[in-house]
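Readers of this paper often ask what the protein records in our data store actually look like. Such a record has a labelled line for the sequence and another for the backbone structure tokens. Nothing more is needed to write down the fold, since each code stands for a local backbone conformation. The remainder of this section carries one protein's record, kept here as part of the documentation.
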Amino acid sequence: MSFTATLLIFCCISLSSASLGSDSLPKAKDVTWTSLNFKSILRWGPKPSNYSYTVEFSRVGSDRQRNPHCIRSLDTMCDLTNDLKDLKAFYTADVLSEHLPGSGSDLVELPFTQSRKFCPYSDTLIGKPEFTISLDENKTVMIHIRDQLTALHKDGKPLTIRDVFRGDLKYKISYNKAGSTGKKEKIVDGDEVVMSELDKGQSYCFSIAAYIPSRKGDRRQGKWSLFQCSPAGGRSLIEEYGLLTVSTAVLVVVTVLVIVVILTVACCCRRTQKGKQVDDSEVTAHV
């Protein structure tokens, strides 16, 4: 056998052995980021049977790091919330397949699957906001929005989405008259909103979502809240029907009452007069 043939066979055997060694551990599949209010978790599958997973992550262009809770783990998720400290940076993560400790196998090249790029500031989904509705002394609708808490902390205190986004945080308000299907929208900066453009005394229904204009596409808007409706406002009769209509109705009622009183008095007087006539006739007949 020639030297060339021997070398070729040796290379094929080496490649085959390396392939078998690598393929003996399945790669992670469906590696995805899920993030809600900056609670950022890496997920994948399938559930391991006789092997484990290790997660390595890094900011793009930086050295790789490991979370101690995600080394040779049997889980299919890794919480990296506290590891992604630069919220505006882009990160990637590799999910490596490894033999269990003490298995006696130590692959040089571990099979792995890499995630897409992820930026917490741009990609985390903002949840449904909570809000309340009130009427001021002028019966104008007031909306009070509560900034949601995030999974992030500073000095032991949780940060709100306004603490993170600051002036970049807006709210989108969708509203319509109660019983109507025609909806309108407005974007506001703050969390105390005066809805002065609404018809006073009418009930309106509202839904609110966080809005980040600096983001791209469908990431700009968070989840819509549940609908809430304002009270009707207790409009006075004059506001509801007009001064002329109310005055006319009052005049009619007063007139009817006066007529009823006059008729009642007349009937009483007539009965009294008849009673006297009967008494006089009885006295005359007795005499």
